């Protein structure tokens, strides 16, 4: 056959061609730069073979033709009307046929005409063209001259453009294929989004400019001294005036005293590297990273990661994120007490790392490498274990390390994520070790820890973390490897899966990290929900996830699993995490003293100011500053509580708060860091009022009247309370399942949502057995039972009049075989008029809380509209429960309702039913109806994190048992 076309270049598993050797990335030097970001010309073709071949790269090619349009660079073309983003988690969206990819391969041709500034000296040195990120493969021409090709979406490439550039006007042309051999190495759990999505820059490299430089530091915590050596090619001088340094490169400099860099104290010394041709800024942070005594130490101290996995994401621009967005992420992390970030699962835009250096975050910088789709093939042909891919893997890990090697914030290199085992993992690790021995190596997929410096796992149960803490985990077959691994530090590179409502069980993990030195914390999965805005047919906006773009293969809302909603508003999960990882533990020492423990690794609490507040039944009675002496890291002080005269009644609660004493780079003075709340005195039990009137039965109407309440004798249900018509008050055990309910518990292998559905718990019918009057009480006996099954809950509602309202006592007796069933909730629900618009309550708030997600809420008095009680999870599900409520008022234009607990209850109030919430797929499916549906819960099942991880811990499971609870309902 005479071959006239055979695709290929982009299916070559080897690294791209003609890229310059990778080097340290520098934002700005005194050498000239020209940003080529802007509106480029763009044409999309359906296959890699574009008719006309490379013609489009020629200078005089007509890009005004109708197939061409403008496209901003950086961006993903699928977010600009050319095709769609597609979300798949683990499987490849194309046949696994490595290194080949489908012929159907969206291909973007880009052209950009630009003028070289007049003072750009082409004759002096070189000019290089840098792409910081092109997804997934590109071929680059300048003025029709081919410069080279590149693979590796999230690592930079530089080409020498000197010979191709002209003074005056130039034309840059780039061909980008969505799919390439490299796509096999980039199977991360995220949207597939091609394009030139990071900056494009032209860099003048004058004669004698820095080809590369490597800042080596060591900090000696025993002496407070440090060493510094800056290797540079060509050699030059290192100038750091603040340290009195003006010395040649390559020389080991001993410094008698420096302030070390830590995530808590991100001290940077700025200076310059000066060579014959360039002045490069230096930001030096002194720190030493080591594994000692089986734990990771920085500057001689064990550190504890309070971390998060960060994908780059913005709902408008995908992974093309601006510096403002990066800064917003860093500020949000710092403001929520985080100290670490894993750059899952690729090196981020370098500006993000600059911000981590500056603001203080420990970084695990991760290679752009994941081959998760091979798992379902038992890893057959997996690049980690196939020699064919060795060079590509060394190429990309090298481009990460070289680019990022001068960041003090990076203390760990990660070889990638979910890429199975194999010797190429070892090759990458060895390469890093010879190049940079100053940092540790991480890879979770190295189960035996043959190549890495720490034992890392994801989504491990609390029980297993406990065993790991004791170094009593199950042994490996190989005793040598087992011994080595058992001696290693342990981290959770991913845990507590922030999908939907939750994650639950955070505090219990933190206690384990605090208990066992080996357990050095973890990184929440993940930072932000990756969703795009889409309109409904009638123009309302919703957050779109997998499948909303017509993808053939997709993983639905598994991409909606962040601590931040897509618009970066914090979710309740983040509020919880902030509290759980707070660096100060404030607890009751005894009735007169508070204990303040500094949970930081390095810094004292001198930057914090403490305040106290005393409340009685949620109303402040006293408050002011609390003097706290200096507390060094790891230490505790006990401080007397202010001498405030306590009243003799009501619930008296101390709240002690630690806030920033002065403005910092990342938050203003007064920003809350930590708090503790505890009772000031025993609360006396509430006085139980006796019932005041008896029920009256009107046989003509069939209505029973009891105080302000009216009941139907046919249904036994409450129909009116004062002015309020009410409906359907009955026992309720169902909740709209959460992502975590729908998950598979790692430990027990149970999916509770499936169990509940099988048990028809969402289809409970109520059979009225008897309705009657017993003394002063109106009594309704029912049997609530789920369709198809013979077990039930015999429920007795006893109503008595009390203090202008009615008291409802519900007794639930299980009937039949419930086995080990747990219930979503146990309480009553009632339909109230839609005119109710506001809730105020005394209980925990202001946000939602469940039994295992309640660290972040405080006891107090709160008020919110019914609409604002909802947590707008992207995928609608149970939400918004307020826990341990003493009383709640629901008010509106046509009368209201007060609910008082005996002593506590939880509530949700919504403008739609649980059934509607269950059926909804997007928030726009939730349309207010004719009622406000109030659930008054005696108990609620926990949340857990089974969407990926452990289920609800036993102590938070709502088991079926005989139960009695009461509430008071009063019209207002
Ligand atoms: C783990 C992945 O590393 C991460 O990218 C993400 O997909 C997460 O799960 C779930 O959201 S892998 C999983 C099989 C434990």
TrEMBL record:
Q: Which UniProt keywords apply?
A: Glycosidase, Hydrolase
Q: Which Pfam families match?
A: Bgal_small_N, Glyco_hydro_2_C, Glyco_hydro_2_N, LacZ_4
GO terms for biological process, alphabetical: lactose catabolic process
Beta galactosidase small chain/ domain: from which residue to which, for each copy? 705-970
Stretches the record annotates as Disordered: 1-21
Query: Its catalytic activity?
Result: Hydrolysis of terminal non-reducing beta-D-galactose residues in beta-D-galactosides
Give the Enzyme Commission number.
Answer: 3.2.1.23
- Where does the record place Basic and acidic residues bias? 8-17
Q: What Gene3D superfamilies would the database entry show?
A: 2.70.98.10, Galactose-binding domain-like, Glycosidases, Immunoglobulins
Q: Which GO terms describe its cellular component?
A: beta-galactosidase complex
Q: Which family does it belong to?
A: Belongs to the glycosyl hydrolase 2 family.
Q: What is this protein called?
A: beta-galactosidase
To which species is this protein native? Vanrija pseudolonga
């Amino acid at each position: 056959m005479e071959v006239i076309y055979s695709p290929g270049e982009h299916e070559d598993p080897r690294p791209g061609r003609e890229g310059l050797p990778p080097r340290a990335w520098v934002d700005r030097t005194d050498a000239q730069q020209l940003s080529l970001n802007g509106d480029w010309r763009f044409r999309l073709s359906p296959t890699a073979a574009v008719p006309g071949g490379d013609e489009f790269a020629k200078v005089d090619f007509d890009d005004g033709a109708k197939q061409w349009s403008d496209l901003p660079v950086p961006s993903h073309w699928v977010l600009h009307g050319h095709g769609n983003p597609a979300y798949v988690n683990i499987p490849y969206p194309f046949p696994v046929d490595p290194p080949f990819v489908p012929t159907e391969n969206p291909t973007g041709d880009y052209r950009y005409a630009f003028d070289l500034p007049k003072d750009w000296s082409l004759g002096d040195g070189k000019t290089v063209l840098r792409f910081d990120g092109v997804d997934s493969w590109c071929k680059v021409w300048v003025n029709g001259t081919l410069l080279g090709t590149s693979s590796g979406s999230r690592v930079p490439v530089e080409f020498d453009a000197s010979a191709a550039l002209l003074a005056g006007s130039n034309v840059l042309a780039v061909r980008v294929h969505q799919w390439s051999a490299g796509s096999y190495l980039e199977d991360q759990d995220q949207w597939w989004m091609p394009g030139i999505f990071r900056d494009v820059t032209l860099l003048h490299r004058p004669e004698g400019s820095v080809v590369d430089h490597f800042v080596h530091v060591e900090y000696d915590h025993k002496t407070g001294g440090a060493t510094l050596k800056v290797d540079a090619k060509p050699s030059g001088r290192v100038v750091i005036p603040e340290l009195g340094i003006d010395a040649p490169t390559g020389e080991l400099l001993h410094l008698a005293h420096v302030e070390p860099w830590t995530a808590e104290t991100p001290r940077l010394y700025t200076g310059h590297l000066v060579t014959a041709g360039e002045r490069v800024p230096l930001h030096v942070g002194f720190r030493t990273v080591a594994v000692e005594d089986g734990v990771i130490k920085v500057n001689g101290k064990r550190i504890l990661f309070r971390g998060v996995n960060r994908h780059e994401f913005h709902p408008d621009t995908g992974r093309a994120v601006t510096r403002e967005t990066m800064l917003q992420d860093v500020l949000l992390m710092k403001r929520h007490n985080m100290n670490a970030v894993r750059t899952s699962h690729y090196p981020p835009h370098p500006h993000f790392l600059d911000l981590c250096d500056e603001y203080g975050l420990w970084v695990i910088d991760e290679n752009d490498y994941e081959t998760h789709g091979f798992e379902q093939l038992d890893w057959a042909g997996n690049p980690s274990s196939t020699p064919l891919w060795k060079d590509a893997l060394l190429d990309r890990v090298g481009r990460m390390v070289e680019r990022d090697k001068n960041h003090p914030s990076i203390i760990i290199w990660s070889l990638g994520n979910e890429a199975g085992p194999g010797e190429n993992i070892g090759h990458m690790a060895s390469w890093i070790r010879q190049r940079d021995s100053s940092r540790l190596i991480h890879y979770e997929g190295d189960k035996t820890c043959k190549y890495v410096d720490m034992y890392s796992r994801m989504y491990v149960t609390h029980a297993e973390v406990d065993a790991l803490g004791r170094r009593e985990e199950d042994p490996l077959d190989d005793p040598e490897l087992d011994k080595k691994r058992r001696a290693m530090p342990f981290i959770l590179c991913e845990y507590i899966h922030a999908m939907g409502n939750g994650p639950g069980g955070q505090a219990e993990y933190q206690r384990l990290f605090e208990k066992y030195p080996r357990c050095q914390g973890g990184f929440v999965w993940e930072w932000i929900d990756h969703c795009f805005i889409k309109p409904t047919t009638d123009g309302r906006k919703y957050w779109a996830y997998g499948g909303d773009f017509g993808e053939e293969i997709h993983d639905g809302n598994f991409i909606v699993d962040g601590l931040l909603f897509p618009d970066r508003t914090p979710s309740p999960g983040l509020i919880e995490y902030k509290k759980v990882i707070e660096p100060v533990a404030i607890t009751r020492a005894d009735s007169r003293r508070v204990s303040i423990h500094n949970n930081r690794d390095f810094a004292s609490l001198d930057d914090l100011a403490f305040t106290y507040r005393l409340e009685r039944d949620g109303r402040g009675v006293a408050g002011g500053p609390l003097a706290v002496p200096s507390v060094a890291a790891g230490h505790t002080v006990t401080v007397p509580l202010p001498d405030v005269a306590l009243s003799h009644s009501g619930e008296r609660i101390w709240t002690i708060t630690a806030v920033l004493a002065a403005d910092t780079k990342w938050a203003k003075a007064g920003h809350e860091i930590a708090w503790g709340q505890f009772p000031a005195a025993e609360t006396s039990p509430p006085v139980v009022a006796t019932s005041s009137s008896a029920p009256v039965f009107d046989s003509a109407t069939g209505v029973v009247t009891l105080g302000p309440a009216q009941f139907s004798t046919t249904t036994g249900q409450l129909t009116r309370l004062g002015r309020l018509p009410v409906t359907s008050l009955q026992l309720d055990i169902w909740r709209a399942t959460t992502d975590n309910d729908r998950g598979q518990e790692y430990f027990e292998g149970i999916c509770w949502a499936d169990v509940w559905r099988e048990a028809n718990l969402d289809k409970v019918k109520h059979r009225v057995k008897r309705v009657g009057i017993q003394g002063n009480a109106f009594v309704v006996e029912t049997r609530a039972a789920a369709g198809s099954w013979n077990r039930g809950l015999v429920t007795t509602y006893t109503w008595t009049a009390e203090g202008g309202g009615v008291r409802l006592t519900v007794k639930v007796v299980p009937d039949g075989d419930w086995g080990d069933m747990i219930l979503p909730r146990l309480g009553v629900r009632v339909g109230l008029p839609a005119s109710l618009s506001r809730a105020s309550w005394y209980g925990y708030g202001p946000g939602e809380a469940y039994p295992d997600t309640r660290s972040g809420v405080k006891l107090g008095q709160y008020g919110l509209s019914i609409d604002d009680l909802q947590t707008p999870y992207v995928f609608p599900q149970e939400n918004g429960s307020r826990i341990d409520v003493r009383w709640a008022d629901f008010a509106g234009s046509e009368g209201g309702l007060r609910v008082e607990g005996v002593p506590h209850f939880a509530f949700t109030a919504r403008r739609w039913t649980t059934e509607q919430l269950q059926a909804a797929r997007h928030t726009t499916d939730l349309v207010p109806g004719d009622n406000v549906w109030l659930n008054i819960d005696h108990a609620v099942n926990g949340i857990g994190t089974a969407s990926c991880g452990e289920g609800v811990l036993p102590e938070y499971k709502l088991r079926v048992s005989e139960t009695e609870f009461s509430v008071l309902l009063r019209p207002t």
